[in-house]
């Protein structure tokens, strides 16, 4: 997929890039797999803001994605189309199983209309096939990885990402995560072979603030530009550096400060921390 470049007809257009959508084969989604999606604006059930800088944005409908792919073991599925999903950065593929059922799955790079994908423990390790991590040959890349057997894919789901199977240790498999972290995952957990599509997403340049608003992101204000009552880094005479280690509005350390719980249950599964 190539990025779309714009001529600098306005200051916003200068440097702006967008997705080329060259791999999209169908623009209308499958109606039976759509659900309404309500916006929260960052508010909880009491109406109080719990996530800042959220609100507005274009109206969306949710596409039901099959992250588990366990109840169709051994049933071949044919790729019907590659589609755009406004709720995620990667593309999605509409597949139809031989029994007639249609589902959405995350589309890896290189998957084309007409290809056949399979789920199961004894399937061939080809792009788009879903299998147990213990059965994946060492060195291959996987995505949509489970953390608990049967829990559905939870990690490595963003555009262009993949994790590499590097070693096996008893009932565990070592994965090199996109961040560089090396983590142990149960070999009975499943992953899908291949790297996710829309690889050049990280190189996109929004170009203007309005495009962020279309995505539902509201403006941010620097902490040191606020009053001391509003932020730990606020206040001071004239311009200041914030006066303390960079932190969030609630005092959570930022820019390198360690925030992970030293007693977190999954620490024993991390062999090498991310850089």
Outline the structure in words.
There is one protein chain. The protein has 275 residues and is mainly β. The chain has 2 domains: 200 residues, Nucleic acid-binding proteins (OB fold (Dihydrolipoamide Acetyltransferase, E2P), Beta Barrel), CATH 2.40.50.140; 39 residues, Ribosomal protein L2, domain 3 (Irregular), CATH 4.10.950.10. It is 2% helix and 24% strand. It has 1 helix and 17 strands. The strands form 5 sheets. The chain has a 7-stranded antiparallel sheet with strand order 9-16-10-13-14-15-17, with no helix packed on it. A 4-stranded antiparallel sheet has the order 7-6-5-8, with no helix packed on it. The longest helix is centred in the last third of the chain and has 6 residues. The two termini are 29 Å apart. The mean pLDDT is 95.
What is the count of structural domains? Answer: 2
Span from first to last CA?
A: 29 Å
Q: Which CATH architecture of the largest domain? A: Beta Barrel
The number of E-state strands comes to 17
Shape: globular
Superfamily at the CATH H level of the largest domain?
Nucleic acid-binding proteins
User: What letter string, H or E per element, gives the SSE order?
Assistant: EEEEEEEEEEEEEEEEHE
For the structure shown, list the relevant keywords.
275 residues, mainly beta, OB fold (Dihydrolipoamide Acetyltransferase, E2P), seven-stranded antiparallel beta sheet, 17 strands, 24% strand
What is the element layout, followed by pairings?
Layout: E1 3-5, E2 17-19, E3 34-36, E4 61-63, E5 77-83, E6 92-97, E7 102-106, E8 116-117, E9 130-132, E10 141-143, E11 145-146, E12 153-155, E13 163-169, E14 172-176, E15 182-186, E16 190-193, H1 209-214, E17 270-272
């Amino acid at each position: 997929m190539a990025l779309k470049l714009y001529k600098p007809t306005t200051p916003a257009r200068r440097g702006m890039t967008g997705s080329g959508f060259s791999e999209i084969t169908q623009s209308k989604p499958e109606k039976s797999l759509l659900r309404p999606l309500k916006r929260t604006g960052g508010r909880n059930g009491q109406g109080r803001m719990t996530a800042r800088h959220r609100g507005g944005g274009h109206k969306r409908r949710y596409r039901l994605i099959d992250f588990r792919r366990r109840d169709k073991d051994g049933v071949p599925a044919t790729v019907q189309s590659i589609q755009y999903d406004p709720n995620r950065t990667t593309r999605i593929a509409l597949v139809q199983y031989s029994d007639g059922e249609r589902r959405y799955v995350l589309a890896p790079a290189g998957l084309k209309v007409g290809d056949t994908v399979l789920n199961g423990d004894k399937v061939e390790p080809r792009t788009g096939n879903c299998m147990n991590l213990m059965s994946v040959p060492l060195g291959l890349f996987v995505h949509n990885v489970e953390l608990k057997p049967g829990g559905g894919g939870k990690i490595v789901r963003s555009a262009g990402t993949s994790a590499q199977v590097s070693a096996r240790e008893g009932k565990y498999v070592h994965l090199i995560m996109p961040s560089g972290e090396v983590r142990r995952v149960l070999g009975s957990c499943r992953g899908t072979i291949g790297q996710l599509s829309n690889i050049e997403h990280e190189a996109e340049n929004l170009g203007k603030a309005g495009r962020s608003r279309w995505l539902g992101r509201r403006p941010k204000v620097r902490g040191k530009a606020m009053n001391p009552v509003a932020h730990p880094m606020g206040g001071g005479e004239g311009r200041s550096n914030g006066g303390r280690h960079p932190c969030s509005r609630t005092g959570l350390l930022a820019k390198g400060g360690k925030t992970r719980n030293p007693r977190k249950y999954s620490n024993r599964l991390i062999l090498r921390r991310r850089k």
